[in-house]
Amino acid sequence: MPRYVRGQAGEVVAALGRWPLPDDSARGIAPPRVQTCYAVRFSAVDLWGSGDHTVTVDLWESYLDRA
Amino acid sequence: MTEHDDLPAAARTRRLEERLIAAGLTSDDEIDEFLTRMYANAAPVNGAVMVARAWTDPAYRELLLADGNAAAAVSGFSVPPPDKHGYQLRVVANTDQTHNVIVCTLCSCYPVSLLGPSPGWYKSFAYRSRTVREPREVLAEFGVTLPGTAAISVWDSTSEARYMVLPARPAGTKALDAGQLAALVTRNGLIGTALV
């Protein structure tokens, strides 16, 4: 996952589907864990301290904690 | 003229290919066949055809925004899902209130079959790092100035979910047919770095 969203609070805007966790696939773990991937929206001001845009990042379930 | 093979990245890629071939994981023929298949018919005109249809056919527009892969299939383009070595096509629509722009900060994920090979700048560190941080400035450098009231929505792709922008239909295009409408749509419009 992109470092800039680590530890940040975002809003789940869509559940995209259940796909293999890339961390497992990249390490050759077979079978990889299959998890729901969510589109999570962050506000620029939270990420960077300024800006009026949003950034939406697709994140697998195990990257997320309930806020 | 610099030969492609002379570039450091090309030499590194070739060494990696040789190691994979030596390990029996792939072959030159398999790599060539994959690249031929990947780039055959991959062009931004494919995405443009889908956009033009969405501008004139409300049911298709609805399908395109709900299930991009299904809409691509209806238009005769094959976009396999993530579990078939493809990706989920997510289409995001520009409106008067919202402008969308796509980026892949981790690498350079991109719907190649519908947009064609990605431009060099899409893979640059500058585009990837700045678009998530200061998209209004990046868009201005592409010549896109948005009203201050328009919200900017940046979509950071993964390999599994790849994005295409549905630009807003320009004013004064009521008389145009599907082919003429598709001709208005640019690759940058499908990325979000142009208005159409």
Question: Could you characterize what this model shows?
Answer:
The complex is a heterodimer of chains A (67) and B (196). Chain A has 67 residues and is mainly beta. Chain A has a single domain (3-63), classed as SH3 type barrels (Roll). In chain A, 15% of the residues lie in helices and 40% in strands. Chain A is built from two helices and three strands; from the N terminus they run E-H-E-H-E. In chain A, strands 1-2-3 form a three-stranded antiparallel beta sheet. Chain A is elongated. The two termini of chain A are 18 Å apart. The model of chain A has no long low-confidence stretch (mean pLDDT 95). Chain B has 196 residues and is of the alpha/beta class. Chain B folds into two domains: 4-39, no CATH class; 44-191, Nitrile hydratase alpha /Thiocyanate hydrolase gamma (Nitrile Hydratase, Chain A). Chain B has ten helices and four strands. Chain B has helices at residues 8-22, 28-39, 44-56, 58-66, 68-74, 112-115, 125-133, 135-141, 178-184, 187-191; strands spanning 88-93, 98-103, 151-156, 161-166. In chain B, the strands form two sheets. In chain B, strands 1-4 form a two-stranded parallel ribbon. In chain B, helix 3 packs across helix 4 (58-66), helix 3 crosses helix 9 and helix 7 (125-133) crosses helix 8. The radius of gyration of chain B is 18 Å and the shape is globular. The chains are: A mainly beta (67), B alpha/beta (196). Chains A and B meet through strand 1, helix 2 and strand 3 of A and strand 3 of B.
